[in-house]
Amino acid sequence: MLYTVEKNYIKILDKTEFNIEHILECGQVFCYEKTKEGYVVFPKDKFAKVIEEEDCYKIYTEDPEFFVQYFDLDRSYKEIKEKLLKNKIMAEPIKFGYGIRILKQDIFETLISFIISANNNIKRIKLILNNLRTNLSKDKKSFPTYQELLTCDENFFKTMGSGYRAGYLYRVLRQITPEILQSYALLPTGELREKLISLSGVGPKVADCILLFGFNRFDVFPVDTWIQKMYNSFFPPLEKRKTISLNLVKQFGELSGFAQQYLFYYQRSFVKN
DNA sequence: GGACAGGTGCGGT
DNA sequence: ACCGCACCTGTC
Q: How far is the CA of A29 from the C1' of C5 (A)?
């Protein structure tokens, strides 16, 4: 067993299967901060403080049940890594990001976050999301609700720093509701992907991210500029991201999403600084 | 100062 | 269906 639930924290017993830096910095999430003591993470209206100790992690939270789900603690990543290691290309990335886990994030939150992420850098994405939180949510620290976002006009989103994505945000809020999004969970991946791409500000890359991080569909391989660079350094170079994605899904099948995270985290570690 | 960020929408072929 | 280009704005 990976964890035990104590009174006000979750204890992670195996640090080879959970590394908070790997989990939060591998590109799947924006609502976290590094602190002096460790990391804080604040999905939806929840909050947890993650502290590393000698032989364990402690996840301090008022809602352990939520964070057991959120951190995907009941899935064996040991098995996933073993399967992925059959592909030689995965050896170094898994060695480097051994403690990665794919979070189970709120679907609506993932939609809004990744629309903002398009052609953008992480620092600025976090800034925009912070602006939205402090200006819209009543407690200044929860992710804004659908209703709160719906009251905003396009210009407001611009003042939050979202630039030309302001129009995407304004329109997408009038195309869907969190409830309709949730109902898409019943659809097969291909059909669901089409639904997502039909939304304003959602193209192939953002759709794949929502599929992976919100709906936890692992048979998709989001290809951004980093993955494209990685791919073109390992394989005969390709221009089109769609072809790259198809090739990678062909290689990794139902484990594509996991492979993507290890490869992304590894690739980005070189270029960062 | 320009290139680049976790791309998308749009109009023209 | 497949290009090519414009697009906010902070950071290097």
A: 30
Mean pLDDT in residue range A100-116: 98
Q: Encoding tokens for residue A66?
A: 């939520």
The rounded radius of gyration (Å) of the Cα atoms in chain A is 18
Give the domains, in start order, of chain A with CATH numbers.
3-74 (3.30.310.260), 107-213 (1.10.340.30), 225-272 (1.10.1670)
If we measure between CA atoms, which residue out of A117, A109, A258 comes closest to residue A182? Answer: A109
* A226 in contact with nucleic chain B (CB within 7 A): yes
A197 touches strand B (CB under 7 A): yes
- The sign of the CA dihedral A180, A181, A186, A191 is positive
Nearest to A255, CA basis, from A226, A214, A212: A212
Neighbours of A271 (CB within 10 A): 8
Kindly give, in sequence order, each residue whose CB lies less than 8 Å from that of residue A122, ignoring residues fewer than 6 positions away: A27, A30
Does A273 score more than 70 pLDDT?
Answer: no
pLDDT digits (tens, 9 = 90+) for A30-82: 999 999 999 999 999 999 999 999 999 999 999 999 999 999 999 999 999 99
